[in-house]
Amino acid sequence: EENVSIAENILSGKETGARRDLVLVNTAFALMLSLDISDLRSAFALASEILASGKAYQLLQKYLQASHDLA
After folding, report:
1. Distance between CA 23 and CA 29 in Å, rounded?
2. How many CA atoms lie within 13 A of 29 on its CB side?
3. Under 8 Å CB-to-CB from 6, ≥6 apart: which residues?
4. Tens digits of per-residue pLDDT, 35-47?
5. Mean per-residue pLDDT over the chain, rounded
6. Helix 55-70 and helix 40-53: axis angle, to 10°?
7. C-beta of residue 56 within 8 angstroms of C-beta of residue 50
8. Is the pLDDT of residue 70 over 90?
């Protein structure tokens, strides 16, 4: 449950420290690979936009609800 809480805090914008930064860097690298983005700065900016939009948090909530429904 602690991990879920950490993820929710990061994706909802409550966490603004090193954990959030690590998520953004990892997401940026994933975006570079999946979208063929050539530079880390652009990928990091896109990752930041996605996080700020709330879409990542909404997706987490859908996942948690689906997991709960299957249990």
Report:
1. 10
2. 5
3. 15, 19
4. 999 999 999 999 9
5. 93
6. 60
7. yes
8. no
% the chain with pLDDT above 90: 87
Q: Are 31 and 56 in contact (CB under 8 A)?
A: no
Q: For every residue of the chain, which 3-state class applies, written as one string?
A: CHHHHHHHHHHHCCCCCHHHHHHHHHHHHHHHHHHCCCCHHHHHHHHHHHHHHCHHHHHHHHHHHHHHHHC
pLDDT tens sequence across 21-35? 999 999 999 999 999
CA–CA distance, 12 with 1 (Å, rounded to integer): 16
Residue 61: exposure state from Cβ atoms within 10 A (0-12, 13-18, ≥19): middle
